[in-house]
């Protein structure tokens, strides 16, 4: 699966443009611009599985650091503060990782 199978390449490019500078990544803005927030719950979970590098069923901070690169390989890494902020926004049960349901809830919040 390629991310452009489910999201428009133009929308992804626009979303990445908005956060190209360090510490400018805003999850909700990214989800809206990329089109993720308009997708169904099952489609968002498909994207989650694409982002989940080790297929563990969870995203940890190391995977989140490369979040933007899953949408475009030349995109920058998230900064440590962006990574921690993204984790805090989605980790509802406080276990230090984001499950598919938590990811979907964050995208649609």
TrEMBL record:
CDD domains listed in its UniProt record: EFh_parvalbumin_beta
PROSITE patterns associated with the record: EF_HAND_1, EF_HAND_2
Entry-linked Pfam families: EF-hand_7
Residues engaged in binding Ca(2+) 2: 91, 93, 95, 97, 102
InterPro entries in the cross-refs: EF-hand-dom_pair, EF_Hand_1_Ca_BS, EF_hand_dom, Parvalbumin
SUPFAM superfamilies: EF-hand (SSF47473)
Gene3D superfamilies: EF-hand (1.10.238.10)
Top-level taxon of origin: Eukaryota
Keywords of the record: Calcium, Metal-binding, Repeat
One GO cellular component term: cytoplasm
SMART domains: EFh
GO molecular function, one term: calcium ion binding
EF-hand domain ranges (all copies): 39-74, 78-109
Record has Transmembrane helix as a keyword: no
Positions bound to Ca(2+) 1: 52, 54, 56, 58, 63
Family: Belongs to the parvalbumin family.
Function: In muscle, parvalbumin is thought to be involved in relaxation after contraction. It binds two calcium ions.
Protein name as catalogued: Parvalbumin
Source species of the chain: Odobenus rosmarus divergens
Gene: OCM2
């Amino acid at each position: 699966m390629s991310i452009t199978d489910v999201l428009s390449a133009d929308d992804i490019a626009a979303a990445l443009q908005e956060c190209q500078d360090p510490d400018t990544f805003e999850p909700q803005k990214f989800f809206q611009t990329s089109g993720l927030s308009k997708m169904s719950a099952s489609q968002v979970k498909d994207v989650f599985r694409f982002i989940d590098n080790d297929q563990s069923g969870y995203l940890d901070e190391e995977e989140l650091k490369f979040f933007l690169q899953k949408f475009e390989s030349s995109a920058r890494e998230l900064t440590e503060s962006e990574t921690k902020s993204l984790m805090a926004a989605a980790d509802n049960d406080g276990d230090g990782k984001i499950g598919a349901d938590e990811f979907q809830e964050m995208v649609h919040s």
